[in-house]
Structures are given as C-alpha cells and as structure tokens.
Amino acid sequence: MTVFERDGRLLLLDAGLSFPHSEMFGIDLVLPDFSYVAERADRLEAIVLTHGHEDHIGALPYLLREVGTNAEVWATRLTLGMVKSKLDEHGLLAHTELVEIKPGNGTVKVGPFTAEFVRVTHSVPDAVAVVLHTDFGPIVHTGDFKLDETPVDGRVTDLTRLAALGDEGVALLLADSTNAERPGHTPSERTVAASLREIVRDAPGRVIVTSFSSHIHRLQQVIDAAQACGRTVCVIGRSMIRNINIARNLGYASVADDGLIRAKRLDEFMPHEIVIICTGSQGEPGSALTRIALGDHPAVQIHHTDTVVLSSWPVPGNEVKVNETVNRLARLGAKVMTEATDYVHVSGHASAGDLTRMLETVRPRSFVPVHGEFRMLQAHARLAEAAGVPGHAVRIADNGTILELDEDGVSVVGQIEAGTILVDGLSVGNVRDVVLRDRRHLGSDGVMIVVATIAADSAEVLADPEIIMRGFDSPEDDGEALLEQARTAVERVLDECVAQRATEVHVVQQRLHDALAELASRATGKRPMVLPVVVEV
Q1: pLDDT tens column, 295-304
Q2: From CA 335, how far away is CA 333, in angstroms rounded?
Q3: Catalytic positions
Q4: Structural domain spans, the chain
Q5: CATH architecture group of domain 432-536
Q6: Model's pTM, two decimal places?
Q7: Assuming Cys at both sites, which of 36, 151, 278, 354 could form a disulfide with 147, CB separation 3.0 to 4.6 Å?
Q8: Which CATH class is domain 191-337?
C-alpha cells in the first residue's frame, strides 16, 4: 500500500494484506494500519490496484469500511472481477464506483494526478505498472512483474513504452524486489506446461494439483494438460472455483463445460481419468488439500496411485505448514511433487537479471526498491547502483517513510506510524498485544483453573474445590499425582485464609495463584496460566 499526495489530494496504490505468523494465535488476517488514509478520507481521490493478488487487493473491503466509498476504485478487467466478488461479500459493491483500467490507452486524469497504465506480465493476468506524470518527470511504479517474452496469454511487459518514458526522463522508479537476490532471469510461465503434461500423462491414477487460486495461467495449463491427456477436471475449494468462474466469464480462461465435474461425481470416473485442481498450496487450515492430507475431506481420500503436485512455492512463514501437508500426503501413500523435487513451478517475479534490464530500460534519476524483505530491498538497491543510478539517489524506505520528490530528486522528509491491524474473526483492529501474549502463554505452558466456593464473612470452604488442568503434562504417567498435590495446596491455602480471616476475594485469589504457580513450576518445569475463581456465598 503506497500513498501518493499532490496538491493536498491522495491517490492510493494497492490495498493488500498478509497472513498471520505462527505466533499470532487465532489471528485470521494482517492488514496494514491505514489510519493515515482514514484520517484524510475526504481527500482520497482513488484507489488504484495493480493486480488481483491478495497482498494487493485483500484489504480493500476493510479499507473502504474505514474511509467510505466516495473514492473510486481503479483496476483492470480481471482484477475488477475479483474485487467485485470481495466487495459483494462485504456488502460494499452497490456503493463503490469501479473504473476499468485499459493499459496502453494513454493518460487519464485522476483528480490532480495524471496517470498512465503500462501492461506488465505477472503470475496473474491483467497486471499493470502505474505511471504518475509530475512537474519533475514521471514516477513509475512497476507493481509485481516479470519479463516473460512468451506469456500464456501473449501479453508481454510493454518495454517499448517504458523505454519511451525513460527517454522522457523518469524522475523516480519504484520496483518489485521479491527476487532481487536470485541471479539470472525468471523462466517463462510456458516452460512449466511441458512438465505438467508429462506428469498428467504418466500418472497411474489421479493427479491432484494445487496452486494459488489467482494463478489463472497456471490453472489453465493444468486444464490444458488434462484435456490433452483425455482426463476430466474437478475443481475443489471455494476461492479456486470462484476465480476460475470469474476468469472463464471474462474470457481469461477456457475449459469446455463437459470437461469439468463437481466433486460429488468423482466416483463415476476411474482414477486415471481425473485431474483435481484444489486450494491449499500454502497449507492453510481448512483448505481442500489440507483436509485431504488429514483424511477429513468428504469427497477425496488419498490412494497409493495418486500423484499430488504442489505447483507453487511456500510464502515465507508458511514453510512449516506446507511441509506438514507434504509429509501427511506421503504417509498416506501419495507421490508428492514440489518445486524442490520437480519442475512444477516458476516464479511470477523478475530475477536480478530482469530487474537490471528494467533499470536500464527506464533509466530513472532516483530509485526506491519496494515489495520485499529488507535484504531483498538492499539487493535491489545494489543492482540499481550497478545500473548507473547514483548512490545518493537510491532510498530504501521502511513502512511509514515519507518521501518527497522535487527538482533535486527524492528525499526522506518524515515518518508516520505504520504498523498492522489484526483481524480476529469479526474483530478488526481490537486485538491487543496482551491478548496475543496470553494466547502464546496458553499455547506454550497451558492453563490451570481452580474454582473455590467460600463463605463471604469467614472464608470457610463451602464445597470441594474444583481443579482443571489443560495443555501441559506432569512427569507422572497419569497426572493424578499432580492433581492431588494441587488439591492439597488449595486446601492448605484456604485453611490459612480461614485461620487468618482473610476474606477479601482478591487476597484469596492471589494466594491460590501463587501456590499453584509454584507447584506447577516445581513439578513440571512449566509456568501455566493460573486462573483462580473464588465464589463468595
């Protein structure tokens, strides 16, 4: 998410989200902190989306709830198709003005901004770079891109227009840094097609393929391989079904109606007649492939003749979940093929050689690497200097950095608060650090709960205390010894409270807490969350 400001008006480029790390217990999504934009909602002209991936459009419904729907949403045809589905789910579609971007059609006015859209190739069709024409020269933001000279849809990155902008004198280039550490050039998407066809042709049973649900070209190549080998395709997974339907309706994917079946019809076909395309490439809980790996899917159970193809790469942070899925599938008897073992995936991002070519084509006076971990931004910055951008004109910006472009180039002029917003079920932005800390505590050390009923005036025990232990093991085989020790400790504390006439609830609770915490630490080496509940009668 990048904010451009001119004459007091704002243009927002992309509205993406990320997925929670393993320590974010119970968190569903991670959004950028867009309070800076929300506080200036009346000045927001438009939200421009470069392509249809979740890390570029996923936060849009949450953003529109905060800023309202006065700002237009600009995107290409396929991206709009994906956005419409999201906005409809959130009840925002009828109130949002959508404007279709047509790459290569010259400049358009967006408030005080003069914008231009240049086609680029990526792992989802209809991606664009955004050009903002300023008094100091054009600003070029590449969005996510690769330089694929033989893309599946024949729509190559428009280097001719980018070179013309370079001749005009580009003031600032912001470019995708995801693969800046990878040397050489990213292979064409078409190079995967032959490998996929061989896998489908030679597989003795079903072929189950998972990839990103927005990777329409990859899905099309799987469908083409299935059709070429006389197999029928079954699509499983809500987002996969939705995106394939959107792509078919808009003409970005092609498959005959009789070439697709629903999951409930799988039993009508022999295994060697089927290719299944499903969600779950990132090991997401509840996704189709994860449920299949757990033996929990209602329509698909793994057979030893099955071949499972993970035609994707694990997003950083998802490696453990993906490996768990692969191991479960292998244990069930499937042959599992990943990018680490077979040629089943190519990246949608430009590698170092392609990034250098982009720099040499655009020839910017100033450069800011974007989209990547810091080490990737740093690697891209080195490429820029090697390509001739002066070192003082290369800026690595953190989230929240304010850059200013003038006749002298780009400079850092400030910093705003730019953290994250956590989505927990229906709660957006209300999850505090203390909540996550408690969840981590529960996840690592467990919980011990004691319920004691006492007389209000004397602290006399009126019922046997109840003790509940969850999430940790005692050294004893059955845990009964620790439970008995806990009962003894609780009774001792309550007897002491009666003897000392300590009737204040918070005093009884604190003494119970301290006694049980010490016992658990001594007996198990853990520090479970101890929750004493004292009921006065």
Answers
A1: 999 999 999 9
A2: 7
A3: 176, 349
A4: 2-185+347-424, 191-337, 432-536
A5: Roll (3.10)
A6: 0.80
A7: 354
A8: alpha beta
